[in-house]
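User: Before I run my own analysis I want an independent prediction to cross-check against. Here's the chain; please return only the structure tokens and, at the end, one sentence I can use as a sanity check.
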Amino acid sequence: MFERIAGSYDLLNTVMTAGLHHRWRARAADLARVGSGSRVLDVATGTGDLAIELARRVSPGGEVVGSDFAEGMLARARAKASAVDGLHVQPRFEWGDALDLPYADGYFDAVTVGFGARNFADLPRGLAEMARVVRPGGRVVILEITTPTELPLSLFYRLWFDCAVPALGRLAGNSDAYSYLPSSVRRFPAPAELAAEMERAGLREIGWVLTAGGIIAIHAGTVPQSRQRQR
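Assistant: Structure tokens:
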């Protein structure tokens, strides 16, 4: 499915969010607390927007890896990053399975995922893998859509995600993918439940912020200085 939508992914993201998704990714990058020389992994990187934002933060001397299992998405991410002016650290985009990350324990200073965690086939395992590859004291950041519960935004949300988004998908020739989007959001844990999952994965100092009226949640947690391996 993600291979099929790679060509229209960026355009539809911009239409669906009125271009605000770049601002949300910047906020997620803030919460990663990275700087010059940091090593960062962006899991389920898609077309690379969050990896590119992180690359702006780690120059000079830093490293950003964008990992995804859809080669079509990775190809677009590589082309996009190479076209960005003034990007002194070029992200490296490579194939990877979020449930079995091919990186050493504690290699990265931070790991992020933007709008990808709800696609994990096994959320606890994906979170544990993200925590595993972050050094003690490093950060795990999750940017995701959530379901608002307060009127009138909850009504708008249902109309937009259950009606308008699938219609946009049909216009783009990807009706199945954009019907999948609202159903995947409904299945994903609410903010407090996701925080509990992060704690079970071994993270501490977990907090989250809601933005866009409660439609977007950005969670962040810290890998403790002394931790037990999560299996």
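Sanity check: Strands lie at 39-43, 63-68, 92-95, 108-114, 134-145, 204-211, 216-222.
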